[in-house]
């Protein structure tokens, strides 16, 4: 009886451990961001996306954002929308840009979503001119 309970706990904890791989900065569907419209506009204008690390840039740290597709009667989240969320997240960190950006579509059934569109990158500060 005890080994069955321990086995059940192990299986449950292993299954739930997969939940932590998703962005903590997750929105559902195509809802408007939690940031004010002016902050969204400023983030999109200010935060540049770089293919490679600019010379002299300083790494602030990892940044991520995700969108959950929960209902087939709603429009699927777009790459552009999750990139806006990523820029807003970098903006709140005080970054000037992001680099090493990837957008990935993964299963998210453990988050009550059909799938997750997850953007990850590295927030950077550019040297002052």
From TrEMBL:
<protein>
    <recommendedName>
        <fullName>Lipoprotein</fullName>
    </recommendedName>
</protein>
